[in-house]
Specification:
There is one protein chain. This protein is mostly helical. The chain contains 3 helices and no strands. The mean pLDDT is 89.
Length: 142
């Protein structure tokens, strides 16, 4: 009987690292967009201050620079958290895809007419319909 214990997080390293890589790429794209927006937002205020003739050593520009620094710190912290969450959730999600496919592959490689048996899926695995279809096929063969 198959065990529900997970022995390895990376069942299919090529798929899982590629999957997480694409998720991280999308995250870095979003981070870049927000970082650029933050930069443009504060530069617009600085340009307005210069346009209105406010001296660069005034409280207005000090305030803008403090706000820019604060937003950059907040943005950096949330970006690190975002990246960590993406990696962890990417591992979980890709594991739930790779697990059933790996069990199916292993079964097909090791199966013979004498040892056909049904397979089980874990509660949160994806593609349980593949295992159901295989079990139905095995039942018809017997």
């Amino acid at each position: 009987m198959p065990s529900n214990k997970r022995k390895s997080i990376l069942i299919n390293p090529k798929f899982q690292t590629t999957f997480i890589g694409f998720a991280l790429l999308a995250s870095f794209l979003n981070i870049s967009i927000f970082l650029g927006s933050n930069y443009l937002f504060f530069n617009k205020f600085e340009a307005m201050g210069l346009e209105y003739g406010i001296p660069t050593n005034s409280a207005f520009f000090s305030f803008i620079n403090r706000q820019k620094s604060t937003m950059s710190e907040i943005f950096l912290a949330t970006s690190v958290i975002d990246i960590l969450v993406i990696v962890v959730l990417g591992l979980i999600f890709s594991h739930r895809i790779s697990g059933p496919l790996r069990r199916l592959e292993k079964f097909l490689l090791e199966a013979s007419v004498d040892n056909l048996h049904s397979l089980n899926t874990r509660k949160n695995d994806y593609f349980p319909e593949l295992i159901t279809a295989l079990n139905s096929f095995i039942k018809r063969l017997k």
